[in-house]
Amino acid sequence: MLKSVQSTVGGLVVCWIAGAGCSDAAGDVPASLEGSALSRSALAVGAAELVHDVRPPSVFPPDVGSEPSGFIQVGTRFFFRAWDVRHGQELWVSDGTQAGTRLVRDIYPGVYASDPAQFTVMDGILYFTAYDGGGGPRRLWRSDGTPEGTRLVLEGGPGADPDTPHVVLNGALYFPGGEGTEVGLWRTDGTAAGTVQVKDIDPNGLSHVRELRNVNGTLYFLAYEEAHGTELWKSDGTEAGTVMVVDLTPGGDSSLIGDMVELEGNLFFTVFMEGNDTQLWKTDGTAAGTVKVKGGTPRGPDFYPMGFQRLGGALYFSAVDGPSGRELWKTDGTAAGTVRVKDILPGSGSSMPGALAELDGALYFTAFDNVAGKQLWKTDGTEAGTVRVSDFPEHAMLSTEALVRLGSRLHFLVSGASWGSPVEMWSVGSTGTGSTPVQGFVWPHLNGGLYLAPSLALGDALFFAANDGIHGLELWRTDGTLPGTALVADLNAPGSGSAPEFVVDVGGTVYFSASTGNGVELWKTDGTGAGTVRVKGGFSQSLFTPRKVGSLLFFSPGDDRQLWKSDGTEAGTVRVKNISSGSYYGPNVSDLTDVGGTLFFTAAGGTWGTELWKSDGTEAGTVRVKDIWPGSQGGVPQHLVAVGGTLYFTAQDGVHGIELWRSDGTEAGTRLVADLWPGGSSSPSNLTVMNGTLYFTAFIEDAGRLVASLWKLDAAGGPPARIVVPSPLAEYYPATELTPVGHTLFFRFDDWVAPELWKYDSLTGEASRVTLTPFSELHPLVAVGNGVCFVGRTAQYGRELWCSDGTEEGTRLVKDILPGTGGGVEFAPFLGLEEGLVFFRASDGVHGSEPWVSDGTEAGTRMVGDLAPGPGTSAPGLFTRVGDAILFSADDGTHGAEPWRLSL
């Protein structure tokens, strides 16, 4: 159980959270705070206590592992995907040690898998595709290895093909983007603005781009065009420079092209031709230079080259000819230079060469012969220099899965003849002799024994997935010796937890969702174990968009996406109305918003698209407000926000583009506010209310240029007014994270290099930059007392907690939690209180990621509990205030992710 954390007030007078010139000394209090009731000491916050173990730890069979795969190196660390019972299959990172192996981010929250794939590295950043649980397609993500640095490249961007490798070319990442067969060629520089389609190859939407390859600065790929079918294309990254190389199968029929590989500046590939012959071709990027290298003999067997491996100036592969079966071949790109290396299994039999790998100028591979069966071979490219290396007993089986190089040795797998036999890892030196066993592994049930195909060499160690019969299929490492082979981390721990997904306060009762052995359930708590009870179960997916309206909780379950409500009882937790949709994803109820006691939301239908709805909690009172854009397209309302008793949102009516709208809940009172960009979409966003005035960002056309701008709208009347922001960034980057504090609106600009903190004073009507401190990262902004706090990253301190009262001198580092350039504060959501306290997640390098609290002073910034003792990480989140307590989710390493409580 959690160790007690002593709370000491001790007469320390609290300095205002961001006051200029404040001190931690007793009696040194800013005049503005003397006698203020809004200050509270962080030292008075109590110890963290487990509320209730909603889902007791589960005990899983020992052979259930995390199944790590997809290893890719980025600097001194490597990323991979792995599965655990709390998060599903997600992105992990490791430095090769148990302490340095951790989940990067639960991209698809809960036990559902984001299924990260297509790992590609550009400029030290990992790019990959994943699902985020929003109901959309797999999209492109980027990660620097931190939760906060793991994000979508482009919100609402194109779907990303999970099967085609991405390619880095001339400072940009190229990837197939779109949905279904409407997959085009896209590129990105890692920013949302720099993510664009290169060319619309087939206007009919059937381009289906795939198989990207970089050959000396030219991008080759396969794509479909109605006039030519699927053929080979190339691109220099421009629309004009994206052209078809050659129409190998003239007309609308498609060529069957595969196995594309580069050699000496040419692209080699296979083409399946009529007559059941798969031929070897090459191209220099021109139609004239696209020629057949070798095919099968007329009316003879299919040549069918496969398993390409470069070595020197030649390409090695296995292929078939009439007299010799499938054997080892090589080519220099000419017909005369395409020859069989050796007929290892003489006659028409096939030696079936596989797992080709290079080591110190020689090619190693597995093959059969009539003497020793399947063994390890090597070749220098000559018949005489093609020799058998190993001599395992006849009953042993070498895996054709992979030969993996580590330093001057190749590692490979050997197993017994029967299914379920132990699997051993062996290695061989560059001389081709000295094969030695490294480690043996069992192969119980269906969880696998040992895999070298998903492996990675990092430094002097090889990382791979293996099952020792105790931990399941987990992450291992080896230096090529038996003593140097060990388990790195048992990622799929047996304690599963309930994984709370949301925490909502409804009149002092907190509701949250929990995953138990009975699926997803709605729970409520008063902060005590006895007062933590299940409200209703039977849901198969997450509960989305919870919203309090009066004494009711509204939400939408992921399994039907309808509108539900709960009064805290099982009988009172019901679907409000069956909204007929005709949509594949159901009505997809979302954006629940309370406007003066009326619930507004959006819902989709097959005939009327996504439109604005409202509900009073009854079936009869749940109606569509207005069909903004008649037809199946729908107005797609977004960014719903209440200003007094009026709802403001963005929508499109088919005439004005995406603009600002308002609604009083009636059809007649639902109308366009202003067409800020006639003929285009100003796409208002960041809708924020401060003292009855609506602030937002929008794009407009100014002197022929697209300009980002900050706006305000007085709800009392009048058109939107543009706010002048004297920053060079203001025209190119929209203001983000609009955060109201009193009469001051804080916001930031982020050009992905040097973000700036700004403010707008509603009393003077002036916008000004808050601080000249050079940050490389700055977010999220959270209102705390009379100022804001945020995570700021600087060259000197790394990522730490900063607070500001809106002045240069009042903007300061609160505490260097983890000394050095790395920083201790994580980009998990903060919770700020009026009293001047902020709760957040941080690690001091000793205790792992734990809950922290700060009152804006160095002395008053502390960890409130070592929930996962020692270097363990409790990963706290979902901080929510309920009366004089803070509830949050955390994992102490014993109970799994469960609800916890802090007393104020």
What does the model show?
The protein is mainly β and 904 residues long. The strands form 18 sheets. Strands 30, 31, 32, 33 and 34 form a five-stranded antiparallel sheet that branches. Strands 63, 64, 65, 66 and 67 form a five-stranded antiparallel sheet that branches. The chain has a four-stranded antiparallel sheet with strand order 1-74-73-72, with no helix packed on it.
Quick structural summary:
The chain has no helices and 74 strands. The chain has 904 residues and is mainly β. The protein is globular, with a radius of gyration of 31 Å.
Fold blueprint:
Elements: E1 49-50, E2 69-74, E3 77-84, E4 88-94, E5 102-105, E6 117-122, E7 125-130, E8 139-143, E9 151-152, E10 167-169, E11 172-179, E12 182-188, E13 196-199, E14 210-215, E15 218-225, E16 229-235, E17 243-246, E18 256-263, E19 266-273, E20 277-283, E21 291-294, E22 306-311, E23 314-321, E24 325-331, E25 339-342, E26 354-359, E27 362-369, E28 373-379, E29 387-388, E30 397-398, E31 404-406, E32 409-415, E33 423-429, E34 436-441, E35 450-458, E36 461-467, E37 473-478, E38 486-489, E39 503-506, E40 509-516, E41 519-525, E42 533-539, E43 543-549, E44 552-557, E45 563-566, E46 574-577, E47 590-595, E48 598-605, E49 609-615, E50 623-626, E51 638-643, E52 646-651, E53 659-663, E54 671-674, E55 685-690, E56 693-702, E57 705-714, E58 721-723, E59 736-741, E60 744-749, E61 756-761, E62 766-769, E63 777-778, E64 782-784, E65 787-794, E66 798-804, E67 811-815, E68 831-832, E69 838-842, E70 850-854, E71 861-863, E72 877-882, E73 885-891, E74 897-903
Antiparallel strand pairs: 1-74, 2-3, 3-4, 4-5, 6-7, 7-8, 8-9, 10-11, 11-12, 12-13, 14-15, 15-16, 16-17, 18-19, 19-20, 20-21, 22-23, 23-24, 24-25, 26-27, 27-28, 28-29, 30-32, 31-32, 32-33, 33-34, 35-36, 36-37, 37-38, 39-40, 40-41, 41-42, 43-44, 44-45, 45-46, 47-48, 48-49, 49-50, 51-52, 52-53, ...
